[in-house]
Fold this sequence. Notes:
This protein has about 260 residues and is α/β, with parallel strands linked by helices. It has a single domain (about 1-240), classed as Rossmann fold.
Amino acid sequence: MRRVVIINFKGGVGKTTTAVNVAHGLALSGFRVLLVDNDPQANSTFIFTKDVKHSLTSLFKNQFALEEAILTVRPNLDLVPASKSLSTINTWLVEQQVPRRAQVLEKILSPAEGYDFIIVDTAPSFSLLNANAITFASEAWVPVAMEYLALANIRELMNTFSTAKSNLGKDLPISYVIPFLYDRRNKKSKQIYNILIDIFGDIVTNPIHIDVRVSEAPYFSKSILEYNPQCRGANDFRRLIRRIIDENSLYRTDDLYSAFFSG
Ligand SMILES: Nc1ncnc2c1ncn2[C@@H]1O[C@H](COP(=O)(O)OP(=O)(O)OP(=O)(O)O)[C@@H](O)[C@H]1O
Ligand SMILES: [Mg+2]
């Protein structure tokens, strides 16, 4: 099972778009996926359902069991939904003990079994909610918008990962840097793409081009693979999903297999 956090502290860079479309693409390819909406904006949730009974907020408060909150939103795709009230959890977490307060999400999700991927969508902030997502995850996928300031944001993110390493003993590798909102007509996109390759090398994926259909799909409560499977944005996502599947054996931590070697 792969535990993925989709993270970048900058807003509007494609985190939710990646979470929703990659999660759905993997599910369509036959993988069992649990999408966890760990963002009070609840954007991932809104795309797949308008009917939330128990959200992640009540799981943090220990009011319900995980299985009572999980919704099956597509074949092979389950969702732990968020609601606006999740923003209150940051203040609640401040009052909890260290280090436990960064481990609550990990505990909430520990009964989740039988998934190939657990994918956590996050809010654009330094917050205890995000510290929880980092503690839970075993790898990070980082969407980056093709803007010069994006590079400064990435530095900030790397600093957070090294703080997590020293404070939580947690070394979170980045598996993929995903260039977002790529504009072919704009030299800037190519320049920033090249800088990303210089910094990150092979983990930089194919770019996701600007495509208005990608931004329209959420209004129709659809992933891009449902809304317009032939458009450029859908092709970009299929290419990214193909790569993730092709490389799955490199990243998968098969629990039995690792238990065998550590035991
Ligand atoms: N390839 C694309 N082409 C055009 N618009 C896009 C594309 N990808 C995403 N968008 C739009 O850009 C906006 C930001 O994307 P998204 O919501 O995925 O970012 P985010 O990082 O999750 O934002 P936040 O930090 O607020 O959670 C959305 O309106 C989305 O529809
Ligand atoms: Mg988002």
